[in-house]
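Rotation project, supervised by the postdoc (A.L.). Task for the rotation student: set up a whole-complex structure prediction and record inputs and outputs verbatim in this book. Inputs entered:
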Amino acid sequence: MPIRYDADLARFEAACTVEDALPLAEWLEATAAPRVDLSACTDLHTALLQLLMAARPVVTAGPEDAFLGRVIPLPPTGP
Amino acid sequence: MSELFDQFVVEVQELLETAGAALLALERDPADRASVDELFRAFHTLKGASALFDMAPFTLLVHAGEDTLSLLRDGRRAMTPELADRLFRALDQCARWVAALEEAGALPADAAAAAETLVRGMAGGETTTDAAASAGEADAFPWVAALTDTERAAVGEGALTAIDYTPDPECFFTGDDPLALFRRVPDLRLLRVEPTEPLPPLAEMDPYRCLLRFRALSGAGVEAVTPAFRSVPDQVRIGSVALAPMLAPSAAPPGSLAAAMLDEQARILDLPGNAAERDSRRAAAARAVAAILTALGRATERAAVEAACTDAHTLRRFLADGPAEKPAVAEPRPATAAPRRVLRVEPERMDALMALVGELSVVKGQLGPLVRRAGDGEMARDLKSFEARLDGLVGDLRHAALRLRLLPLARVFDPLPRLVRDTARRLDKTVELVLEGAETEADKDILDVLGEPLLHLVRNALDHGIEAPERRAATGKPPAGTLRVRAFQDKGGVVVEVSDDGAGIDPAAMRRAAVAKGLLEPDAAAALSDDDAVRLVFAPGFSTADSVSDLSGRGVGMDAVRAAVERAGGRVEIASTPGSGTRVRLSLPLTLSITRVVVVEAAGSLYGIPVALVGGVQRVPRAEIRGVKRAESVVLRDRVVPLVRLRRLLGQPGDERVREADCVVLAELGDGPVAVAVDDVGERADVVLRPMTGVLRSLSGYAGTAVLGDGRLILVLDLRELL
Amino acid sequence: MSGTNAGGPRILVVDDAVTVRAFSRRVLEADGFVVDEAVNGIEGLERAMATPPDLVIVDVNMRKMDGYTMLRVLRRDPGLRDVPAIMISTESKDSDREQALLAGANWYIVKPPRPEMLVEAARLLTGRPPDREDAP
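Outputs recorded:
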């Protein structure tokens, strides 16, 4: 289970694929103030990145993966 | 920018002329390095100059020309008549565009298309040249030039590989993960992920549709980066870009020109070279760094800067650590001299100057009689010496003013090589053009008069004079014809000769043609000397060619040449030998505003006859003048020449004095010489010719009035009209 | 500070294109520089030796003597070796820039220069602050 949804917080874990796109989209839309934790994410599909860019959730923790950490244009802002 | 643009127009015209001449030379001798270089430089300069203005098609075209020539120069392409045609066409197009720019201020609407066609023609199916490719690359990643300071700091400097990747929106369905591809890019320095269009609200978004584009920079080479995108070659552009270096913020704002320049100085310090080269580069870099710091308001002691300019590392550290606060000592500069410039003068101002010089001559001339009236006293002597000095000065002034208007005949010679080349190619003839005396000078007005007739004579010689190679070979001539255009100065005027080694003009054929065209009665034709028969080409409505050629037979004939030259106070002569060639000689005065005349006297009045028309002056014993009824004639230089008396021409009573000899002026008119008998012949004088005004204007037979140096008024005769 | 006396810093523009020279002159003179011109390297050296400029701006491709040669000779002249030099060329390739620096240029500008870029480069290399009125 690459993305675990916990109320208003989504935890991205390991390789998150295009399969997660639809559920993530629905969750982002349904959640009033979504927050995401990317710290354990090792791979992020473009479709998911695009959803995060559109929804601009609060990122509680940026990815530890060096590649994702450098390229993700989301500001690692705290609550 | 209009003044600058005017200069541009003049420069382009000059460059196009240079290029045309070099191209002709190159076509003749493809191994001519100097001409390739000349041509290359001309295109290169055209490119640089045109880029200052908004005329992309022009720049594109000359750029392509430059590329073509660089291939020629490197021996990667050979010169052929076809390539020459294409380059000529490009030059012609440029000339037309400049004319359009001058007139309409803009290139014609079809310029881009025209340029493209010509560029394709020049490329001649070859692969794109390096220059074009690199220019394309520089523009292919405009966003690289617009990186933020943070990004600049992250990516570093030097040669980088830029990646521009816009995935297919449907790519998620085919299993692509664009972001993942970048994991395989070596030395990734920057990755920007941006929406291609503003992302819609989440509710309206299709999560399986890719709306992103990726822009990245890598420190690895293009060939190292490309494999990562092998699966999406149609969606990605990869190319190398150069990034100017960044500088530590303490010396100059990052990304500023000053920062880039400072870092360039650091780089210069590490460039290879011998000790002397590196030393002088170091000195220049130190001075540049000191200047830049001063400009930034951080003037630094020169010695400290020089000490830091040992190598790139030391200088960078020196700049990063912040310079000392002490200002540099001012070095006073010597006062500057005014730069030398070429003066361009409006023609109207020149004319005004000439008119004033003319007036001055006239006023000065009136001083003579006053001096004579002053008698022999001391004051008279002083006046005389004063008059002599004034005389000299006015003469010098007139000469100097006249010289201002003189231009070399090269101006009218310049179009000839191209004309001969194109015409000969069209007629399938081989013609060697020899130009002599292009440095001969004449007044601008005269050059204007000369241009058209000269073109016509040259066309005529190629068309009717020089035979086709086979015919030449059959008559034992070299297959290539020679056309010689020679200019030289001659008794106050300028002479241009056009001679060919062609078929010549057959006097018998001329007589027959004159009769056939109804210009002459058979008897009169038969009585013509060979020379006079040849001269019939100048008769109005006469053409020697059997058929009208598209080159020279139509419209203007030789009579137009004659008319143009004679209008300017000149004359035309022709000499031809059947089988071996024709020579046409145009004699023109040096200037139109000053006419050199022979002063003659008739019935107590003075008249002027333009020197250009005068073939000689001599005394002829009465006994040698033959009279048939009232028509008189005289044999001069083995020719029977009709003799007219000026008094009679002017409606004056005949000379009652008994004289043993008559003064005769031999006037060479286009259709033959005429001996003009006058009472006396005086000096030759340069006069400013004034057109007849008022009631005098209705008088025919006069070219105008003029005032002699001593203030006396003369009427200048127009003999053609008078006769 | 150098060259703040009457006339402002002196710049020698060496280019065989009269249009480029005129452009440079116009742009630089408008900013208070004194501009001198030469049409090739030889003339450029002559002018520089007659009146040492504060900056030379030199074209690459010129007849008689090209810009590279002129800069090399300039750098060998004891009185002119440290005069800052800008090379200006239609070529935008790195190798051309390198060539220019090797010959002795301090900066390289690709033709056509933007007027404000030319002025800023000239100000920097002659040690003139961006705005004379605001200068201390």
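Student's summary: The first strand of chain A starts at residue 3 and ends at 6.
Supervisor addendum: Helices of chain A lie at 21-30, 46-55, 66-71.
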